[in-house]
Design goal:
Blueprint: H1 3-16, H2 20-33, H3 38-50, H4 54-67, H5 72-84, H6 88-101, H7 106-119, H8 122-135, H9 140-150, H10 158-181, E1 195-201, H11 209-219, E2 225-231, E3 248-251, H12 257-266, E4 271-276, H13 280-287, E5 293-299, E6 311-315, E7 331-335, H14 354-358, E8 362-365, H15 374-386, E9 391-395, H16 402-414, E10 422-425, H17 431-436, E11 443-445, H18 454-461, E12 466-469, H19 478-485, E13 492-493, H20 496-507, H21 510-526, H22 531-550
Length: 552
């Protein structure tokens, strides 16, 4: 081994031990004698990426690849840097090359999955994440993204989703063992005693769970329940502003799952309601059994796959009795409604029906393009063909990536739809401006098999009804559940043929659309956005579950 290579080997060891500055200094010294030294450039790229400078990382990786074009590791890291820059197609190319060069590289397959998901190809992404797991079957990040992507894939059945989640759950349980999963015994209490409820919000500034949970926290009966929120966030210090004063905030940033579980046990938590199990990596805390009773609720996409999760809160629209139990490791508690939501205070007033002035209907979807399955594109193209004057607005931050936008324009073109009929828009940072964009569409089209959640709530608040298919999975039925709760069963189709027919029928009744638009916010306020009634039902379910616990 040459002296520069020995130095770089030492530099990588220093970097991994946390001595980044010393490692970078060594790499720079090596480059002073050999400006094309691939591993020295690679290390500088890694350091730049870690410092939040992906553009600099791309430059360094690019120079490194000139000297080492067959390095799988450098290609894989280049893919990650391009993903950070929102350049999904370039990321896909480098990650794909990395996987070709080293089929056993887990990170290559993982970054390929992330790139494919960003491009909107969820089925291929799930397969790539599976490839990563075949090389590193215990990697939790790979599992988390694989399980999430499965929900978007039209190729994954409800049975597939359940079995993969349960496989992950068994792996987690085996890793923790009995000692880690046994809760400290709680004293017996009267069924009427005040209970301590705990919610967990990891990385709360990176996902929308606070929008679902916030109104619930504000509606809790604090005479009957002590409410504690264990969470972490990078957005600031202290208690997040959306939390009510009476709720107890516990900052758990930096704690491991085992440490957090011990803290929750010591605090005497009776019922742990996990409000964001949509990502597998957020669920692991449940396996440590921090509370005598544990529930998954509010923002989820499937079973948790964990035997330690006692209950999952759902409703009869999402999980029809007798049909859904086989796809859950939890016992189902069906509330009158699965969850509730709080739209930004910046939401503008509902505008007039666009078609009344334009003379043609404008359909829209503000969903993640990863939800736009080939079947979704075919159905939407069928709607546009059935209504030749109609337009379609797609809006999502992912569409700021020109390659993502081009992919979907190409898919519609292949279905015979002129690009002039489709508007693609990216990120709008201003909440009022973003929500105001709903005033430009007459009808929201729900994708499938993974339908809208947040976007469906937003559309309905803005007076825009959602046309949906009642699918086979939890997330394939959420928009249908919302529309049925509103009494709008005619907006729920059984299949793609019925979906296209319903779009044609509903778009042909402009007076009916205008009347519904004017009334929809108030109708939704009384049901979907009724935090008081939802929380009362949640509390009743908790109280009933606690009684059953005491009687065991």
């Amino acid at each position: 081994m040459s002296e520069p290579s020995k130095q770089i080997q030492a530099a990588f060891a220093l970097y991994r031990s946390g001595e980044e500055a010393d490692a970078v200094a060594i790499a720079q010294k090596v480059l002073s004698g050999d400006p094309g030294h691939a591993e020295a450039l690679h290390l500088l790229g890694i350091a730049a990426a870690a410092a939040g400078n992906p553009s600099d990382a791309v430059v360094m990786y690019g120079k490194a690849l000139l000297s080492a074009p067959s390095s799988s590791d450098i290609h894989a890291d280049m893919a990650a840097a391009y993903l950070a820059l929102g350049a999904a197609e370039k990321a896909r190319a480098h990650a794909g090359r990395a996987a070709e060069l080293d089929p056993k590289s887990g990170i290559a397959h993982y970054n390929l999955g992330n790139a494919l998901f960003a491009l909107g190809d969820a089925a291929a992404a799930a397969t790539a994440f599976q490839g990563a797991l075949e090389t590193e079957p215990g990697n939790d990040a790979y599992w988390s993204n694989h399980l999430f992507a499965l929900n978007f894939s039209a190729e994954a059945s409800p049975r597939d989703i359940f079995e993969r989640n349960r496989a992950w759950g068994r792996l987690v349980e085996a890793g923790i063992g009995e000692a880690g999963a046994v809760s400290v015994a709680q004293p017996k209490r009267s069924p009427a005693a005040a209970l301590t409820l705990a919610y967990y919000l990891p990385e709360l500034d990176t996902h929308v769970t606070p929008r679902f949970l916030g109104p619930v926290l504000g509606a809790h009966d604090l005479d009957a329940f002590e409410v504690r929120i264990y969470g972490s966030w990078a957005g600031g210090e202290g208690k997040p502003s959306f939390l009510p004063d009476a709720c107890i905030w516990v900052d758990v940033g930096g704690l491991s799952d085992a440490e957090l579980a011990r803290r929750m046990r010591a605090d005497g938590v009776d019922i742990f309601i996990h409000p964001c199990t949509f990502k597998a990596r957020y669920r692991r805390i449940l396996a440590h059994r921090p509370a005598p009773l544990q529930m998954a609720a509010i923002n989820l996409v499937s079973t948790t796959g964990l035997a330690a999760t006692d209950y999952l809160l759902t409703d009869a629209f999402l999980d029809p009795p007798g049909a859904s139990e086989q796809f859950y490791s939890e016992e189902l508690i069906r509330l009158p409604a699965f969850n509730t939501y709080s739209v930004s205070d910046a939401a503008p007033d509902v505008g007039p029906l666009p078609a009344a002035g334009a003379g043609f209907p404008t359909f829209g979807s503000f969903n993640n393009p990863a939800k736009l399955s080939p079947g979704t594109i075919r159905a939407w193209s069928g709607i546009l063909r059935a209504l030749p004057a109609s337009r379609l607005l797609l809006k999502h931050r992912a569409l700021d990536d020109a390659d993502v936008a081009a992919r979907f324009t190409g898919m519609f073109a292949a279905a015979g739809i002129d690009a002039a009929r489709i508007s693609l828009e990216g990120f709008t940072p201003d909440p009022a401006g973003y929500l105001g964009a709903y005033n430009r569409i007459d009808m929201a089209l729900d994708p499938f098999p993974f339908g809208g959640g947040t976007t469906s709530y937003e559309a309905l608040w803005m007076g825009v009804p959602v046309l949906t298919i009642e699918g086979q999975t939890f997330m394939g039925r959420l928009s249908a559940a919302l529309m049925r709760r509103l009494g709008l069963d005619g907006w729920v189709a059984a299949d793609a043929v019925g979906y296209v027919d319903a779009a044609r029928r509903l778009a042909g009744d402009l007076n009916g659309l205008a009347d519904l638009r004017a009334d929809l916010r108030q109708r939704a306020r009384q049901s979907l956005f009724n935090a008081k009634d939802f929380t009362a039902a949640l509390e009743a379910a908790c109280r009933d579950a606690w009684r059953r616990h005491l009687n065991r």
